[in-house]
Every structure is written in C-alpha cells, then in structure tokens.
Amino acid sequence: MTHPKFTAQEKRVRSLILTPGYTGNSISKTLRLNKNTVYKILSRLVYFGEIRPIPGTKNPIIYEEVTSPTGKYKDNVEYVQSDIPYICPEGSVEAHINGSVIYKIRKVGNFDTIRDNKGLTVGAWKDPIELTRCKKTIGTQFHGYIRAFRQELTFDYRVFTNGTEQFLLFPQRIIADTKTENPDKIKDRFLDRAVFVAEVLKNTEWQLTNPEIHGTLHFPFPDHPLIRHFDKTVDLVDSDVHVDCSHGEPELEIYNTSPDAWKKAQLIADLPNRFFGLEDKVSENKSKIERNTDLIDKITAQINATKSLIKDISDVQISQTEVLAKQLELTSIQIKIGSNLLTRISSTDQQTINSLINSEKTPYQQPSKPDKTQLEGYN
Known about the structure:
Elements: H1 8-17, H2 24-31, H3 35-47, E1 51-53, E2 63-65, E3 92-107, E4 114-115, E5 121-125, E6 129-133, E7 136-148, E8 151-160, E9 165-170, E10 174-177, H4 183-201, E11 207-222, E12 241-244, E13 251-255, H5 261-270, H6 273-361
Antiparallel strand pairs: 1-2, 3-9, 3-10, 3-11, 4-5, 5-7, 6-7, 7-8, 8-9, 11-13, 12-13
Helix pairs in contact: 1-3, 2-3
C-alpha cells in the first residue's frame, strides 16, 4: 500500500520515532506538538505500514521500520500486499465480515512471540482475560494479533469451563473490484487470509484447519458523496442499505443479505465522482452568489447615499434657482421702473424741447415803452 504524500510533519515524526531513545512524549517536546497530534500521526503511520510497534513493548511502545519480506505461502497467499489504499478507488468497494472466521482446532500451540518463516517478528499474544457471564466466570480468552497485508489481523483463543474451545479470526477490510469480483470471490479472499494466519501460527505449534466464515459480508462506502443525503441515524426498515456510524464517521453500508445487494454495491461504486462534483460547484456558485449579493448590497448602499447627496445638491440648486428667480424678478421690476422713469423723463424733455422750438418760431416783439404822460403842472 502506498502512503498518501507525506507531510513534513509526518516525515519528522517518522524519522524521530525510528531513532533510538525517542518516544511519543519526547517527540511531542522536541517538535513542540500536542501529544494527541503525535500519537495520531503514529497511528496513521502504523496503519499505512510505514512503522510498526515491537510486540511486547509497553509504556513506552517502541516502534520499528517495516522490513517484512514479500513472498508467498501455502495456497499462494501473499504475505505482504498493497490492499487498502488511502481512498477506495472509483469502481471498487470495501468489504468486511460482520462476524468472524472460525477454525477447527487440531492442536493448541504455545503463546510465544509469533514469527514468520524468515524469523521476523510479526505478532504476539496478550495477557489472558477471564470471560464472564452474569458475573460468573465461564472461561478464559487469549487475544493475539499478526501484522500482515499491511494490517493487524486479530484473533482470539477461547477455552470454556465446560471443556469446549474456539479459535476466531477477525480479518480487516479488503478492497474488491466490482467488475471482476463477486461476494463468493470476496469470501474466498477472507478464507485465504485465514489460511495464511494458520500457516504462520504453525511456527508456534498451532494446528488450525477448516476455516469457515460466520457472519455477513458488509460493503461500506466511507466518505461517499451520497452520505450527505442521509440522516446519520437513518435505518431504512427492510432495506440492505444503511448508514453506519459505529466507526466514528458515517459510512454508507450495504449488507449482503439480499440477491441484489451486490448489484447495489456495484451501482454505488460506479457512480462517477464528477456527477457529485456538481454539488460542489453548486455550493461554490452559492458562495459566489452570496459574495456578489454582499457586493450588490454595498453598491446599493453607495447608490442610495449618492442619491441622497444628489437630492441634497438638487435641493440646494432649486433653492439657488428660486433665489435667482426672485433676483431676476426684482431686476425686471427695477428695469421696468427705470424704463417708466426714462419714459417720463423723455416725455418731459420732449415737452421742454417742443416749448423751446415753439418759442423760436414766435417773432420778437420789442416791449412797448410806457406812454409819456405829462405831468400835471408841466406843459
């Protein structure tokens, strides 16, 4: 399996955790990262097969680089293969068993460190725990795991007080091609893994045969675009399509409980992502519309402010126009008065001129002298 492109942070954490003396806590202090962030990165690196914890190490867990060789075991079962990509490819489907694979126990082996045929450590057993029912001990359980196929395959050996015993394998998810595979082939792949585990456990003297699947095939679609159209708690009655939230994130899941369940899985797997990309475009366009609406609102506000300013200017201009009209009216009156005054002055002047003209035309008469009257007493 190819890890998605490493981030600089992941590279630093991987480099330090493989350096002797470094633990998750010391890396947190060295890189000044939150502890949860460091352990989350370590979990991702383990999941993608870049590092693995050394079995039996606790507080702190010591990690080592994955150096397991590739090869084939009985029935052509590969020891290491790239199985679960970071994102399930279009046209493919994840598959897992809602249950377990149960073996027939021919011989109980030991609980030593589990090694492969090359002598490399690939797994371990944990401390046994009591099985209880109604506060009564009914048996003992031994839990173990093997790292293979870039995954952790877990299993339980249970021995009950009534003398019965079980060996159960819990295989992880696989990726199936919907065009070339079907539910029967997928089950065969899970059984191949069971055979592989039995082969590895032979090195610790276990003899396990006849693996059988006890459970139902489920086809989950994590992060599928259709999930957004379902409520997280949806459970369609009498349907083989569900939304499962048991892994923390909602998954669209199809149960292989009906004849057409595989056809539905093929249909959902083959839905082109570009169709669902239209929803992203719609969302993007909605964002653009919202931004443009905000811009339009701002422009509208500016226009309204401009209108108010223009109105104020217009009102001032109207007031000025009214003043000018008044001034013009007064000026007109003054001109009219002046004109009337000039007319009167002109009329008076004309009369004066006419009078003068008439006086020039009248002959001059010398004023008559008074008669000389003899004075009484004079002759």
